[in-house]
Amino acid sequence: MRESLCALGNGYFATRGALPECSADEVHYPGTYAAGVYNRLVSEVAGRHVENEDMVNLPNWLPLRFRLPGGPWLTPDTAHVLDHGETLHLSSGLLERRTRYGLGPGRALLVRQHRFVHMADPHLAGLRTDFTAEGFSGALETEAALDGDVTNTGVPRYRDLDGRHLTHVLTGTTAADTVWLRCRTRTSDVRVALAARLTAPAPVTNRHDRPRALQSTRLDLAAGDTVTVDKIVALHTSRDPAISDPLHAAVDRVVRAGGFDELLPPHLTAWDQLWRRAELDVPGEAGRILRLHLFHVLQTLSPHTADLDVGVPARGLHGEAYRGHVFWDELFVLPYLNLHFPEVSRALLHHRHRRLERARTAARDAGRRGAMYPWQSGSDGREEAQQLHLNPRSGRWLPDHSDLQHHVGSAIAYNVWQYCEASGDQEFLHTKGAEMLLNVSRFWADSATFDDRLGRYRIKGVVGPDEYHDAYPDATEPGLDDNAYTNVTAAWVLARTLDVLRGLPEPRRRELAERTGLDARELEKWEEVSRTLHVPLHHGVISQFEGYGELAELDWRGYRHRYGDIRRLDRLLEAEGDSVNRYQASKQADVLMLGYLFSPAELRGIFRRLGMNLDERTWRRTVDHYLHRTSHGSTLSGLVHGWVLARARRADAWQFCQEALRADIADIQGGTTGEGIHLGAMAGTLDLVQRGLTGLETRGGALWLDPVPLPELSSYGFTLRYHGHWGVRLRLEHGLLEITVPSSGRSAIEVHLPDRTVRLQPGETDRLALPD
Length: 772
Hints:
alpha+beta; Glycosyltransferase; 4 domains; five-stranded antiparallel beta sheet; 26% strand; globular; Trehalose 6-phosphate phosphorylase; Malt_Pase/Glycosyl_Hdrlase; glycosidase; hydrolase; transferase
């Protein structure tokens, strides 16, 4: 867990917070991951050949070990440690460690290190090591390395799978103080190169013990004096633009790079600029945790990401869980980025658009029109959802039907709309955005079948966000009918797409129709489907899916008494020979996700368009129903419940907000944080403050606010970037809302509150009393 939370990155690559003198074992796991670098391998599992694509653990640039001459290498696991501490400096993006090794009576070696992954130059990293002899004088041997003997073994349940992704590892020397390593991935053929320069007050000896490039020094230590060794590393891959060869680029960059002291100021400046653009002022422990979450979001998705063809990895660049795949987590990430780093949001949507043709192919292969985006994706946009998954409690490999979560297409469409509303980027909306919206809408309209008995359209054979339920009890085929979240979001996508098409300039609308074969008859069907999709109910509650209300009730108290932690209830039941498909039990928010995506007014409007009345009483009953039937087996669940309860049951909201805040720092999912942070939950907590508690919406060219301050979090502030205005500051405190629009040449910002509308010109500040 410490190594994940102490990882350093810059959006291009990240390195886990492992100690440089430690190799991968059951305690330590050094890992370096570059955004978008995947490789595909085939493994034999349970008698079947299973193909998986993984984000690749790249050669380890960290190694730097040390020892007294003739003695063993010193590590915390093998030597006597007098004291040890690590500090993650969020403001500067530096990881500091301090360890005192006991060397016998009255003798100790103090090791102090500072590490960065450069935020100004995304290809550089640095490690400074200060050695201080205490109570003795003498020699100290050090050995630094670039290590190509790495595999993907960071997730225990994946270790039955082939994890050796690198091949053709070669090493060499380019100067007396500089070595290099190059390799390539086995099937994706991505070439990777690293170059390292070692600076020390003693001669550096280079040698090559493939797959490692080694650099050794013998330092003379005087009692009380400090000797410094600096290691500067450059990383390039063949995916990088504007290079001819990764090895030449890495060597050239590290040779031309300054020393540690020269590289540090631009790194600090880059971080200072990021913090200003994402300014967040929340008091107390919640504020400290939110700052950590923001730090890791920025390390995974920085302005450097805008230059890359990458998606949003669910576990960041911090570990190998979920194999580094892209899911729907951008649904929780982009709404935050839209209002701070819209260029990053645009790049992430470009990533989805580049894979639109692959999604169209997937739909055709499934006998559908439009685009069927994958639940899990990696490099090229094909479906990467596993065919089998391991239940570690029972030891059995089980069929995996998560690829039926077609609602990921609606998440992409939602992000297109939200990005364009927040940024005002009409060019994107009219081009790539419209193309994605059109194809997702076409898929939903083609997936819907008319039921004469109900007089409504239905979408069958899907899996909702809950994930526990993937089939009806005792069914021979997977899939559920009329998942409420899927149907309501599909109706919303169809309606928004119709709005966009109506608003297109006529020449562009004509181009789009000619390219896609879109005609008036198809638009009429979209209109009809968007108004008549079936949303099931039971006992005055929105049903998670058709037939949900007929499932058995679970003995929640009994299972909590028996197992304590029942977050992964599906695994507990399967190990007992039972199935969660039999029960009204959810892993995470499903129906309640509707209250996360849409404001109360907008959600009522969607249901009204569907010919249904969603009054406050029905919604509160629905919230209460699922609140008592959810095991929160996902870090996203606490976030969504906290968001929804802030408006529906405020007294209970903070409990779930705290769970979302503590998801990674307390590792509440039982060991999963060490395999990578939960990026969606981290970004979602930031957006909880930014949009959830403020009721902030960006629509119709205006900011709409309807704050619901919680007693535990009633005073906070943050800045936004909105429609070209940089650094718009909002602060809520003691029933007052203060808005400051910095000076610029932009037009006024219109702000809507429940009881009034104000216009703020650039350079103006307004303090508004909030209604009780």
